[in-house]
Amino acid sequence: MFKYFPHTKADIESMLKTLNISSIDELFKDVPESVIFNSDYDVPSFMSESELRNHFAELSKKNQELTLFSGLGIYDHYQPAVIDAVTSRQEFMTSYTPYQPEISQGTLQYIFEYQSMIQTLTGLEVSNASMYDGTTATAEACFMACAVAKRNKILISSTLNPNTVNVIKTYLKYKELEWDFIAEKDGVVDIEDLKNKLDKDVAGVVVQKPNFYGIIEDYEGFADLIKANKSLFIVNADISTLGVLKSPKEDGADIACGECQSLGMPVAFGGPSLGYLATEKTYVRKMPGRICGYTHDLEGRRAFVLTLQAREQHIRRSKANSNICSNQSLMALFATIYLSLMGKNGLREVNNLSYQGAHYLYEKLLKTKKFTDPFKKPFLKEFTLETNIPKEAIQTALLEKGIFGGIGLDVFGEQYEGLINFSVTEKRTKAEIDNLVNILEGLS
Amino acid sequence: MSKLVEGLYYSKSHEWVKPLEDDVVLVGITDFAQSELGDVVFVDLPEAGETISQEDEFGAVESVKAASDLIAPVSGEILEVNEELVGEPELLNKDPYKNWLLKVKLENTDELGSLLSSEEYEEFIK
Amino acid sequence: MINYNKMIFELSNSERIGYSLPREKFSEFHINQLSDNLLRKKELLLPEVSELDVLRHFTNISIKNFGVENGFYPLGSCTMKYNPKINEEMAANKAFSNLHPLQPTSTTQGALEVYYNLQTYLSELSGLHEFSINPYAGAHGELVGLMVIKAYHEDRGDFKRKKIIIPDSAHGTNPASTVVCGMDVVEIESNELGRVDLKKLKAVLNDEIAGMMLTNPNTLGIFENDICEITKLIHEAGGLMYYDGANLNALLGKVRPGDMGFDVMHINLHKTFSTPHGGGGPGSGPVGVTETLAKYLPNPRIKKLDDYYFVENSSTALGQISSYFGNYLVALRAYTYIRTLGKENLKLVGPYATLNANYISKALRTAYELPIKGYCMHEVVFNGLINKDNDVRTLDIAKRLLDFGMHAPTVYFPLLFPQAIMIEPTETESKETIDDFINVMHKIAIEAKEDPDKLKQAPTKTPIRRTDEVFAAKMMIFSYKDYLEYINNRG
């Protein structure tokens, strides 16, 4: 016997008898003999729970938990204890997609609340129930723009996180759509280059704020230009920063998308995190993914259901705008609980504390004279500096003290050589920041 | 039993065509189509001035659990779109023959000959 | 508190807070120092509540949900098996969950080892050469697998192969993924036994075929017994075979997709490898390929040299499809599951799942129409009741099951049968649970004859009853803001 299989010998015998057969193998009679796998799998033997715990204890020793001054899309924000307590409830964790609303109101209601929160943060009218991550959400936003505008080219700002750019390029390439880049100027997207490149083929324009360098870009004038060209304006923004920054709606965006990992999720070696996607109702039928709507049951009670399903793959098949099916529902619950706890004041405070820490570190690093700011532009919780100290020396010195930060941006491409990123969240203490500065001060 | 109207032309993709005068026709969906779809919640239509061509998609009708593309039964220029349907798509369930989708100026009246008569269509949906 | 009916926003009181943040340390800086044109003007509509308010709210809505630990969950094609607790304990390990994806590999060897070994185990269990665990979900895996197929043909300079053959019984994701990958669907009709019709398959083969997507056992729970012939035909025509891993649970322990001639596949870790469905995600959809195709797998790749694990970005890869390593903590749960079962117990998964499904098939066919005779694999599809009087539909049967404290099976899929009911019991259910289900299904069949209205009205014992979906689609109330506007307009 094995703990996940309740079949006793007697059960199996009685079931086989019901089926008038003498062994389970007979049920596989349709399978050609030549493809039956009769050997042992070359995987390790089973483990008891305590063996497994020991095994993971050994594996854990090969990982190093570090004090994180790293960001670039994945941030070390505080995670309220309430989140784990609620998200680990089996009613949320083990249930399927809420296709039976009568017994899925828990999931449906938090999706509705999640959509409401994304709505208010982006300012746009409708959010879907979630996307895999910020990069794929942005790629899907590009598809959406092409479907709405009935055109086939996307303009991508050069200040987008290269991870996002790479995923967009893969998606567009295989769908046989086109793209071009808008040049950057002094660390921000260049509006003059945008003007030159907006043509009749452009379906959408994607920008990011805060951008790859951490700079908060100002999109004054962008929406008018883009709309005049009958293209869609796509703003990618770390959702947490929208607690204080101008919303995509205020920027004139038609679609907002990006990463939600900042909302109470662990850094988790990159996943699972959560992507969001929001737009105006005019475009909702071109929006991918599930959408939850408010309604009532036959006794008039408040109820939530998945709606506008005729957009989706299980109905539309080859005519669907996207193939997305499973999303990141449980991670949307993380975000919903986080935002419930924080409210608008908490979210503002998180941003302010991160801003303060980041600016304190920034000033201190400049004072060492070993770092310069090539851009001198406003930033929030992360920033980019230039230095002559080899990035390997920085990394090694910090790692020795259990710190990870000062990522050399050239891991994303040669053009970023000499640039390094620092990120500070509300979790970093003054002692940690001072320590970081001390270590770097001693390098040359 | 699906309702049919004598004197209309029908397509195998469940649209009907009603000649008005000269080369101007109305286009709609059949009672069979609306009953298969169920409660219609959305109708996506092109704009007046655009042209449609026979057997090409020109829009879509959506219910809660299904979506169906609209296939042009004839070719021509769209003179008018029934805007009432945008706000009240359920009109298609109430009376699919009264609530037309498009008024079209035919490019080629011969195309009507390629469509089914009401008897032929009745046989087709059996 | 099953009648609890508040939204979190309705608990709001502007004096309350639910967070505790570090105190200010650097008051010489303030976010207001940012210029005004960068800051938001519009007030946020977020709740302001205490910590206990939040806990009570989410606890109260959670009990309106039905999870695997509530009761039997025979949702066909979804493999709602037990999600082991030890998986969760391991995924909560801070030594893994606190790793930043950009950390140097010298500090993440344990995490990389798990990822790498999971790749290896999945290769062994499926008979394919190499896996990437980056895809986030089954549909994402399909898209990536199709990208591999496209990349392979284009790499050979063959740009006209852009058609993917898909049986009409396939999941909707298959055709959707194909189109998203910039290829066209060639749908082929199934034969009367619900299987691929070889004649019809041969008729569509030509030099424009990039490959074929197949679920085996197919969506009717039937094994494609001509599988060797099918893969041979596709390969001879120059195409590649894609295995949709949605139904892999049936085969675990018995048959490996690679041995059937498949070149590319995805696995839904949230089905076969017991990771929780999470109310619709996060899932994980690793993609496996043959040796020839391995060079196209998406970046970043995790490799091993001697005893050191490292991250590689290859120029032959199809590109990047995720920010980093996919839903890493989901993969870690699947790794835990495989280590828990070990090679011994993994062999029993498919056989036990298949035994359970056939036992149900046998017991219900006296009351429910079984359109395809013979043995099924891990799931069985009925076409409604045998007795079609009283207009009792599959939907009514599904809703009535909820009143008996069981989740409904998948309904109205596959599309081949108008009243389809698809039942998948999985290997983690006992004979007693299955017998209970069988009894309830028979009870419902009797009710359909004697008191059909009871079914039409069902469910009545659930937190809410049937919902008005037309209202939802027409009113388009998608947020609390929309809701407030709706209430105000209604007066």
Task: Provide a descriptive summary of the structure in words.
The complex is a heterotrimer of chains A (444), B (126) and C (491). Chain A has 444 residues and is of the alpha/beta class. Chain A is built from 14 helices and 17 strands. The model of chain A has no long low-confidence stretch (mean pLDDT 97). Chain B has 126 residues and is α+β, with helices and mostly antiparallel strands. Helix content of chain B is 17%, strand content 36%. Chain B contains 4 helices and 9 strands, in the order βββαβββββααβα. In chain B, the strands form 2 sheets. Chain B has a 6-stranded antiparallel sheet with strand order 1-2-3-9-8-5. A 3-stranded antiparallel sheet of chain B has the order 4-6-7. Chain B is globular and about 35 Å long. The model of chain B has no long low-confidence stretch (mean pLDDT 92). By secondary structure, chain C is α/β, with parallel strands linked by helices. Chain C folds into 3 domains: 8-62, no CATH class; 99-346, Type I PLP-dependent aspartate aminotransferase-like (Major domain) (Aspartate Aminotransferase, domain 2), CATH 3.40.640; 349-457, Aspartate Aminotransferase, domain 1, CATH 3.90.1150.10. Chain C is built from 16 helices and 12 strands. In chain C, helix 6 (173-180) links the parallel strand 2 and strand 3. Chains in contact: A-B, A-C, B-C.
What is the tally of helical segments of chain C?
16
Count the DSSP helices of chain B.
4
Fourth CATH level, the homologous superfamily of the largest domain in chain C: Type I PLP-dependent aspartate aminotransferase-like (Major domain)
Spatial order of the strands in the main sheet of chain B? 1-2-3-9-8-5
What shape does the CA trace of chain C take?
globular
Q: Give the DSSP E fraction of chain B (strand runs of 2 or more residues).
A: 35-45%
Order of helices and strands of chain B: EEEHEEEEEHHEH
Share of helix among residues of chain C? 25-40%
Overall number of strands of chain C: 12
- Low-pLDDT stretches of chain B are none
Q: What would the average pLDDT of chain C be, to the nearest integer? A: 96
Percentage of residues in DSSP E strands of chain C: 5-15%
The structure class of chain B reads alpha+beta
Biggest sheet, spatial arrangement of strands of chain C: 1-7-6-5-4-2-3
Structural class category of chain C: alpha/beta
The overall pLDDT of chain B, averaged over residues, is 92
Question: How far apart are the termini of chain C?
Answer: 29 Å
